[in-house]
Amino acid sequence: MFTTAFAKSKSNANSIPTDLVTAVDTLKKELNAVILAHYYQEGDIQDVADYIGDSLGLSQKAADTDADVIVFAGVHFMAETAKILNPNKLVLLPDLDAGCSLAEGCPPKEFAEFRAKYPDHLVISYINCTAEIKAMSDIICTSSNAVKIVNQIPEDQPIIFAPDRNLGRYVMQQTGRDLVLWEGSCIVHETFSEKAIVQLKTTHPEAEIIAHPECEEPVLRHANYIGSTTSLLKYSQESDQSEFIVATEPGIIHQMEKATPNKTFIPAPAMNNCACNECPYMRLNTLEKLYLAMKHRQPEVMLSEDIRIRALKPIQRMLEMS
Ligand code: 13P
Ligand code: SF4
User: What is the rounded CA–CA span in Å between residue 289 and residue 95?
Assistant: First the structure.
């Protein structure tokens, strides 16, 4: 009897309304919530968001919002950044397991040992890292401001750049600076096949190749344009070309097609033609989980106040320097 009643109430608690879009909208008003979504989220999540952007845009929105609740449709380091900026707000992440290979590939203990080898170096860390790594950094950057930030550092100041070696190499190329790189990479962007992209180009000779700087050098070499997700979207709108091979997570194509429905966007193929160009972490979030997170006001992103305070400084420096 008890088991049945418990099972019933549990299933009610998790029951999903048929009109999820309306249900999410109602909860948004009830909670005074803002939904922030990254371009790599599924299209149905992007469509209920108040703001869709790249990592920099999302941090700027999080720094600015007067909502009581931030529902972050993205990965953990993004929601954690929102929490660092808003300690008194409730920050919800639909699936707490939505991590990032770059963040996971840079453990605090190993990074502290690495950093200790270069005591006179300034540490610039890509935002795709944990709060602990941010707390050990001097400045945070994203793919859209990394070059700009490095260019503002005096020439004679040596720099450690972590954790993405591909973005780091791209920044070295653009700035002419010699950076000490942490050898991390993104499992999604390193999967693009140079050979398959070149082959695709032979059947679509007019198409422009646009790529995220997390891609490996052999892929970036073929790109007509390299930039963050927001700048790839902007470029695709402004370019005279009508066909694009998109070398980043294909979630961004949702907004590209919405902005210019007359243009064609071809996802760059991964090696072995697998679906590994989709970020497995980003895709853990679903519209159902987003609805349940708002309904139950969990899972909540939390972190220690000591780490938060230390991680806040380099994020604020980034926002000032952007
Ligand atoms: P953006 O800076 O373009 O948002 O990139 C984030 C990311 O995770 C790329 O893989
Ligand atoms: Fe991390 Fe790569 Fe996924 Fe971006 S696409 S969240 S860098 S694993």
Answer: 7
